[in-house]
Design brief:
Chain lengths: ~400, ~375
């Protein structure tokens, strides 16, 4: 009775016995199962928040667009650019040109109080003033309802994410800016990016409403190609009198999602790790009692010539099976409960609200299953070792 | 009490299982502790808010400043006892990741407004004497290793000097403490007069006002009076109690906080289930033994109490150790280094945690204990 084939048969036989005994000790198996399902559900659930947020932040970023802020500014909110600077940026080499001139949009970015639908309290919703060239610069703006805002008029269009999360942003609604109400005339999508959390209007109109004179906060430009970024940056850096910091749009948005993503990931992994530790103790308990209940059975198998290696492997397989089943259920629960759950939160890096949806990705589910497998293997290993080391004679005497 | 050794030796009979059970309960309560601290961190500012303080800000948005001249008009409004103002600086110290609040203010006014902020008299005097002086909260000072006399360079992209440069240097003349943990000691405060003179634009404006009212029961009426005073002016105001103002920030984070809480509730429940099951299991295994106890004259109630005591002892042991460990962890400070200024373990939650661990012991023990109580001696002994 040697050779790998026999060994596999032994493993299969013992594993089958083990799994068939599950109904007899249902209580403790269910406890382990639920524990591991809980770990996976929580891990996947929390991390899906971070993934969804990051996806919303980076969806719109592309390599052939650049955002130019005043140097030293880490967000549009704190930046400031005068009219001459924005002209110089638009005329820089590398900026793509359309029928009406350079594809560069000088923009204003402010926040206004709009009540959040979920809580009814004021939230910092971004209100962006743009240049007509902005639509061509962005390239992914689609009007979903209503019409575009007319340039020069006190009216706005709202991103779909913003319309969903904040009150009064449907077509026909209005926002309060200063002493007047500005009607919402349209809804737009922007390929899932942050622009969908914003309210848009004409930059000139916004300048007047917020007493900004002829100043802006940022310039968005479309470059001829991703490779044009370096020469464009060099040109701006060497031009006397300019004090600006260009960034690729993709890098800028990735940078702006770092803080919150890190916070959620740190807390999520910390919580899931502690919980996994608890689940390991639970799994150990279950498998130890499984081994204790089957002492005689295991000793008999050993007496019949089953190898101790086969016993160890099959007990671990049994624990692994319970853990993976728990992992599947946990992952499934997280998917049903969290995937595509729409919410919005404050991004402290821009001091404004970002609407996003939780995303349970295949990668996250895989990560959850790996955690489940590790818990199952640790929970099975030590009890299996004990089973393998049982002195056959004394274990049989218990018969 | 005399049965304590018996209970103890029962726990010791399967050392490994007892250890594993205690460890899983311990983990559940460590999580409970962390949850409390995180919740505290998210809503902590509300505890600092005084019932007699109001915040006056621009109606459209917090980022729009209010004229400094409003202060005189606010002070004249009946019911207002004192006022102070703050202006957000939003600067960067060395690296954008080193976030902490910096604000321009008037020293005497702000210190009078927040009596729980403790600044040594000679440090206060130094702040009053020098225009370029600033004071920092203990947490931020310790985070960056600042000492009194240090020069703190901060770059502000919002506020440029008249010549367009962005670097501001402040002389650190004082480090303030909070009278209790609910006082935020992360801000850096510097003088408004020096700031207003130095900046390029928006001169004569402040970020927002803090008002102390004479009678906190009149707070809402006074808030309305203030907003009426500035109605139909170019800068209309929104006045609300400090608590509501701080809470609105927590609410801006949105249902994320709620979700986190729900998730952690689920965590707690799951682990309790695991732990409870183990306890029940250990009682089931001892059926014969419990029968023997009854046979030699233990009453039903004594058996019930013994099983309950064992379960409660186990839970309390795990609970106390878990809470203790999380307390040590939280004592170590905010794991995010500065994002959560109110990261600490509230005493109330500590007591609640101990209470829950006892309840867990009782809940996990009650069914096996009842089972043990109802056990008929003859049946139990037959199973031995």
């Amino acid at each position: 009775m040697t050779g790998p084939w026999t060994w596999l048969l032994q493993v299969a036989a013992v594993t089958r016995f083990g799994l068939m005994s599950v109904p007899r000790r249902l209580g403790s198996v269910v406890a382990t199962f639920v524990g591991i399902a809980g770990v996976v559900a929580v891990l996947v659930g929390i991390l899906s928040m971070a993934v969804g947020f990051k996806m919303a932040m980076t969806a719109s970023g592309s390599d052939d667009k650049a955002i130019i802020l005043r140097s030293g500014a880490d967000s549009e909110m704190v930046s400031g650019l005068d009219h001459e600077t924005t002209r110089a940026i638009a005329d820089a080499p590398g900026v793509a040109r359309g029928a009406q001139g350079p594809l560069a949009s000088s923009e204003l970015y402010v926040i206004i109080n709009v009540p959040k639908r979920s809580t009814g309290t004021d939230a910092n919703v971004p209100l962006r003033g743009l240049d007509p060239a902005a639509l061509q610069v962005r390239g992914n703006i689609k009007l979903l309802a209503g019409r575009m805002n007319e340039w020069g008029k006190n009216e706005v269009i709202a991103g779909v994410g913003a319309a969903q999360e904040f009150g009064g942003l449907q077509v026909g609604g209005s926002i309060k800016v200063g002493r007047s109400d500005w009607p919402v005339v349209g809804l737009f999508s922007a390929g899932g990016g942050t622009a969908e959390s914003e309210i848009w209007t004409d930059g000139k109109v916004l300048q007047a409403a917020f007493n900004r004179g002829d100043t802006y906060q940022s310039v968005y430009v479309k470059l001829n190609s991703p490779g044009a970024f370096q020469p464009f940056t060099n040109y701006l850096a060497n031009k006397p009198g300019l004090n600006v910091k260009p960034a690729r749009e993709s890098d800028y948005f990735a940078e702006h999602s770092v803080m919150l993503t890190q916070l959620i990931n740190t807390l999520g992994v910390l919580i899931a790790f502690l919980m996994a530790a608890g689940a390991v103790f639970g799994a150990l308990n279950t498998m130890y009692s499984a081994v204790a209940a089957r002492t005689r059975e295991i000793a008999t198998l050993r007496a019949l010539g089953f190898g101790s290696g086969a016993i160890v492997v099959s007990l671990m397989l049994e624990s692994l099976a319970v853990a993976l089943a728990g992992g599947c259920i946990g992952g499934g629960l997280a998917y049903l409960a969290f995937n595509n759950f729409h919410t919005s939160t404050m991004n402290w890096q821009s001091f404004s609200q970002v609407a996003f949806a939780f995303r349970v990705t295949p990668g996250l589910l895989l990560r959850g299953m790996i955690w489940a497998a590790v818990i199952g293997l640790i929970g099975g290993f030590f009890p299996a070792l004990r089973a393998a080391r049982l002195p056959i004679a004394s274990a049989l005497r218990e018969l | 009490m005399k049965f304590l050794p018996l209970i103890w030796s029962n726990l010791k009979r399967r050392k490994l299982r007892t250890l594993l059970t205690v460890l899983s309960i311990l983990v559940a309560f460590m999580l409970f502790g962390l949850l409390s601290a995180i919740k505290q961190a998210l809503v902590g500012g509300v505890a600092m808010a005084g019932a007699d303080r109001l915040i006056v800000r621009h109606k459209v948005s917090l980022i729009i400043s209010l004229p400094a001249s409003y202060q005189q008009r606010i002070d004249k409004i009946p019911g207002v006892a004192a006022s102070a103002h703050l202006t957000w600086f939003g600067g960067i110290y060395q690296d954008p990741k080193n976030f902490f609040p910096q604000m321009a203010t008037v020293p005497e006014e702000i210190l009078a407004m927040y009596p729980k902020v403790i600044l040594a008299p000679e440090q206060k005097q130094a702040w009053l004497n020098s225009r370029n002086a600033a004071v920092a909260g203990r947490k931020t000072a310790e985070r960056f290793g600042w000492k009194i006399g240090d020069r703190i360079p901060i770059t502000s992209a919002i506020w440029t000097h008249a010549d367009g440069t962005q670097l501001w240097d402040f002389d650190l003349v004082g480090i303030f403490d909070g009278q209790d943990k609910a006082t935020d000691t992360t801000p850096l405060w510097f003088r408004y007069d020096c700031f207003d003179e130095g900046r390029q634009y928006d001169k004569g404006h402040v970020g927002w006002y803090i008002i102390r009212v004479k009678d906190s029961s009149q707070a809402v009426a006074i808030a309305t009076r203030i907003d009426d005073e500035f109605a139909n002016s170019p800068a209309e105001t929104k006045t609300e109690p400090e608590g509501a103002f701080v809470q609105s920030f927590a609410k801006q984070i949105g249902n994320i906080a709620l979700i986190a809480e729900a998730i952690m509730g689920a965590v707690f429940f799951t682990i309790l289930l695991v732990a409870g099951n183990t306890m029940a299991q250990s009682v089931r295994e001892r059926t014969g033994e419990l029968g023997a106890l009854k046979a030699i004259g233990f009453t039903n109630v004594q058996v019930l109490c013994q099983v309950m005591a064992e379960s409660c002892l186990l839970a309390l042991l795990g609970g106390a150790l878990g809470l203790g460990l999380s307390w040590l962890f939280i004592l170590h400070g905010d794991p995010t280094h500065g994002l959560l200024p109110f990261f600490y373990f509230p005493v109330n939650d500590l007591l609640t945690g101990l209470g829950i661990s006892l309840a867990l012991g009782a809940a996990a023990g009650i069914f096996p204990a009842l089972q043990a109580m109802r056990l008929r001696v003859a049946d139990a002994l037959r199973r031995m």
